[in-house]
Amino acid sequence: MPDIYNPTQLVDEFKKSGEFDRLRRELLTEFRSAEGFASFMSRVEDITRHKLSSDGKILLMPETSAHRELLQELNRYPLVGRTVAETPKLNDPALAATIRERVNKIIRENRGERDMGAWSYRRRHAFA
């Protein structure tokens, strides 16, 4: 593991550890099983259908351009933010604590410290 000197390197190490992908999969599963996900998807479909029916030239555009146009239309609405706010796991303080713990573990390992558990680590650094 290369030495970590800045946040970008820390993020890279977090991703290399596999934690980022694990967390992403877990949160996506939680998001998809959330109470408001079905209404979120329904709203996305409604907005997309309306845009396609009101702006026929989108159907003639190259796929990447049409995709960009539809995403711009969807971004006009607070759909994602509202659905995220209604997803309990994404608002759980334990999630931030878990991420913090895993990032601290990467930092400790990078510094060559043994993983002595969160309590021991906090105790050693409480008066630093």
Structure, explained:
The structure is a single chain. The model has no long low-confidence stretch (mean pLDDT 85). The chain has 7 helices and no strands. The protein is elongated. The protein starts with 6 loop residues before the first helix and ends with a helix. The protein is an all-alpha fold and 128 residues long.
- Sketch the major β-sheet: none
Helix content: 55-70%
Number of contiguous helices: 7
What is the radius of gyration? 21 Å
Query: What's the quaternary structure here?
Result: single chain
Element order: H for helix, E for strand? HHHHHHH
Number of strands: 0
* Distance linking N and C termini: 25 Å
Shape: elongated
What average pLDDT do the residues reach? 85
- The helix-and-strand class reads mainly alpha
Please mark out the parts with pLDDT under 50 across 5 or more consecutive residues, or reply none.
none
Strand fraction band?
under 5%
How would you sum up this structure in a few lines?
The chain is mostly helical.
Write out key terms for the chains shown.
elongated, single chain, 7 helices, 128 residues, mainly alpha
